[in-house]
Design a protein that fits this description.
36% of the residues are buried. This protein is elongated. 29% of the residues lie in helices and 25% in strands. The chain folds into 3 domains: 124 residues, Alpha-Beta Complex (Aldehyde Oxidoreductase, domain 3); 243 residues, 3-Layer(aba) Sandwich (Rossmann fold), CATH 3.40.50; 84 residues, Rhodanese-like domain (Oxidized Rhodanese, domain 1, 3-Layer(aba) Sandwich). It contains 13 helices and 22 strands.
Length: 475
């Protein structure tokens, strides 16, 4: 139910036999705003349009979050300090959906329902302030894209191509929050946003579409609100959950371009395989400290697995939380991802479909590495790489008869306390592999890469100790 009323709002008791979670949000008129004392507040609405948008909002919330009941009551007219201006009540089978649904309604109410407000201060008033987002308007849309359409490489035809394009952003963190504004600004018609995370204060130095007051809120919902404020004509589809094997195909199939803004090697492999299966274009980027890399996988070009035949273990490169990140690094790489998408849609330049661009922001150097298709590559056929479990063991107790080979350099301590052979990676001697063996390094990263290489050479009974010396009591 959505209701506009000029009467004081009374809070009814919630009752629904099938509900286990009830949430009530009450927004009241406060006595200050932006450092100024507020005397009273007035709301004005265009009733028919507000009612229509409000009804659609309630219906969408029920469908999106599997809610059992929703009630939204919004006051119009003059209100005094302390009066309830908006009341939202949500009932759901579980509390998680009830909280999420209520938060989503609060955000969407501000940007979708045409209700205007006027705050009165001692020195005057704020004037009428409209809803946070303008309604889509052809005149505005034309002005919005004027400078871009002036380019002969774009023009009206190119702008129409952008409007008809569908782009999926997997991750709206550092990379996604840099590419998103420019895809929205370019006039891409439909954008899908996939991310299960909430905003953390440690994100904000590099995820600049969010604000300090957004901490704890859903990334995809705040990113959607940002996008609609920038360009009311864009269609935003949000998926506030983790991409995995159960949903990757349905998501990839629904879009033309896929932009990978994740830091997960497993998800990158999932996207690579799914894009090849459905002949979609993948733009993938990665960042680490002061450096980044970007490449594009087209339906018939070399894929991600051609470049990396064996997936490195997830912890072989530290995350932003573990090793730190300069905020401008994902900013720049995210912009380059947006540029790849626009190049492909508009045709104004060559894609990074047969190369990988490396960027070092400490030196300003860029390096382009040539990529080529690898014969028999499973990734090109839409298959996932071998699981890391095929190359690693969790404990030496799993293989008590295996030869233990320490590939750390001689200056790396401590020494292993168990029988072993030591042959450092820098001068590794394959002749020691006379029987099945487990390779050990400090963290498991170097031994994993060497095992992958040795397997490719035909050494089949060779494994890496997951976690290395740091995670096992063998020194």
């Amino acid at each position: 139910m959505f209701l506009l009323t000029d009467k004081p709002i009374q809070i009814p008791a919630q009752d629904h036999g099938g509900a286990g979670g009830f949430v009530t949000f009450e927004g009241k008129v406060r006595n200050h705003a932006d450092g100024r004392a507020v005397h009273r507040l007035e709301y004005e609405a265009y009733p028919e349009l507000a009612q229509n948008e409000g009804d659609k909002l309630v219906a969408e919330a029920i469908a999106r979050f599997a809610l059992l009941a929703v009630s939204v009551i919004h006051r119009v007219g003059v209100m005094e300090i302390g009066e309830t201006a908006v009341l939202i009540q949500v009932a759901s089978a579980h509390r998680r959906e009830a909280f999420a649904g209520c938060e989503w309604i609060i955000d969407q109410l501000k940007i979708r329902v045409p209700i205007w407000k006027k705050e009165t201060y001692q020195e005057g008033d704020s004037g009428w302030i409209g809803a946070d987002v303008l309604a889509p308007d052809e005149t505005f849309n034309s002005l919005f894209t004027t400078r871009q359409r002036t380019l002969e490489e774009v023009g009206d035809n190119g702008q129409e191509k952008l409007r008809n394009s569908r782009v999926l952003l997997v991750g709206v963190g550092g990379l996604g929050s840099a590419s998103l504004p420019y895809l929205v600004g370019a006039g891409v018609g439909t954008l899908g946003l996939v991310d299960s995370d909430s905003i953390d204060p440690t994100n904000l130095h590099r995820q600049v579409i969010y604000q300090a007051q957004d901490a704890g809120r859903s990334k995809v919902e705040r990113a959607a609100a940002f996008s609609k404020r920038l360009n009311p004509g864009v269609t935003i589809e949000t998926f506030p959950y983790q991409l995995d094997e159960s949903n990757v195909d349905s998501l990839v199939q629904a879009y033309d371009w896929i932009v990978d803004g994740t830091d997960s090697l497993a998800i990158k492999s999932l996207l690579n395989a799914a894009c090849r299966r459905h002949r979609k274009i993948l733009v993938s980027a990665s960042v680490h400290r002061f450096e980044g890399q970007i490449l594009t996988v087209t339906p018939d070009g070399p894929c991600l697995q051609c470049l990396f035949p064996e997936p490195p273990p997830e912890k072989c490169v530290g995350t932003c939380a573990e090793t730190g990140i300069l905020g401008v690094v994902p900013g720049l790489l995210g912009l380059l991802q947006a540029n790849e998408v626009l190049k492909g849609i508009l045709g104004y330049g060559e894609l990074l479909s047969e190369s990988m661009l490396l960027v070092d922001l400490r030196t300003g150097e860029t390096t382009s590495l040539r990529r080529s298709k690898r014969a028999g590559c499973p990734g090109c056929a839409g298959q996932l790489p071998s699981s890391t479990e095929d190359l690693e063991v969790n404990s030496l107790q799993d293989c008590p008869e295996y030869l233990v080979v320490d590939i750390r350099e001689f200056d790396e301590l401590p020494e292993l306390s168990i029988p072993h052979i030591r042959t450092p990676l820098s001068t590794f001697n394959r002749s020691v592999l006379t029987r099945p063996a487990v390779l050990i390094c400090a963290s498991g990263a170097r031994s994993y890469r060497l095992v992958a290489q040795l397997r490719a050479e035909g050494f089949n009974e060779i494994f890496s100790l997951r976690g290395g010396v740091m995670e096992h009591s063998i020194a």
